[in-house]
Write a structure and sequence with these properties.
Length: 386
Amino acid sequence: MRTISIFGVTGSIGCTAANILAGQSNKFTITVITGGNNVTELAKQAIRLSPRYVVIANETHLNELRNLLIGYNFEISGGRQALINAASIPVDISLQGIVGFPGVECSLTAAKFSKTLALANKESLVCAGPLLQNICTINNTKLVPVDSEHSAIFQCMLGESIETVEKIILTGSGGPFLNTSIEDLKSVTPKQAASHPRWSMGQRISIDSASMFNKAMEIIETKELFNVSVDKLEVVIQPQSIIHSMVGFNDGSIKAQLGPADMSGAIGYAINYPNRDPLTVERLNFLELRQLDFLPVDHLKFPAINLSIRAIMIGGMAGAVFNAAKEQALDLFLIGNIGFLDMARCVEFALNEYELNPIQHNFIFEDIMELDTHMRIRVIEMAKGL
Ligand code: NDP
Ligand code: MG
């Protein structure tokens, strides 16, 4: 039996992981599960998965959680520190499915105490890639990506050396606005932006997919994960979302990883790594599929991609700046304060500011937190003038 903790069990990634684990209960013992606000779902998952510890990050829900779990023998706690304490409990695998910047510290902590960090929270690599890699190296922790593109690249890289890689080709579905004009993009609503044509995901990542900020984050994530230079990174739209990403090598050969648009594949792969265990996901039928399409990215409609490349070129903590501005801009878009296309303006503004005085070396997590807070404030101020 291997021990596993699931951070963000109440979310899209977490619930999918819980479904897989419920079907593999002979292989895993659940140590920790955590939620943010959704106390009902957290209690439901606790009863279903029988973990040792149940943590609700928002402490105001702690009493309600205790009430829902009366008669059960779980150790229940709440609050930010309880979450970090839970990430410090040694386990074989930590699955990190918390959304956004709050997941970063949790990943950095779990990386110290887990044999494998199955990482869905892309913000951890975008904001603190070098710190996370360093912790993994020091503690001999295996970092296995859960993001479908990075899982694909990881699988393509097995048995290969990064020196022989000519290109990493990240695929993207193009999102709900692939065929929407730039004029119409100005007035799209959060609800329209959150309805992804292929993947079923949490609200924030769905809107990030519509703006291609998700793909932009994934470019930085790839750079941090595989240590490749930016000129080797390419994005291609693959509207069917069947090819999850590809790696081209110096002999002209290209490896691709294919599968249905279902995160169960990447989650199952990461938690079972290095084994490949059976999963009850849909199987591809090429004769039904018949066709795979490829399109270029429209950088005028989707400036996020070039902004992420700029963040990589600036270096230092520019990834954290990029993420803070993107998260704050998304919050402003969600409450109707700015338009869909304004989100990219906010990120460009933040990168411009950081570039004036970049901090390149020797930063620690507290520096990243401080910069994150500062940039959010700056973006709110800037957005008032939009
Ligand atoms: P969801 O919004 O569906 O779930 C997010 C999870 O994080 C929930 O459990 C939520 O708790 C918890 N959470 C939110 N805020 C906090 C906080 N401040 N402290 C602690 N926990 C918190 O997101 P997804 O599952 O879609 O995404 C999770 C991560 O995985 C993201 O980083 C995303 O980019 C990445 N990812 C997701 C994919 C997907 O298919 N969904 C694909 C690839 C990557 P609660 O709901 O209880 O409030
Ligand atoms: Mg992805």
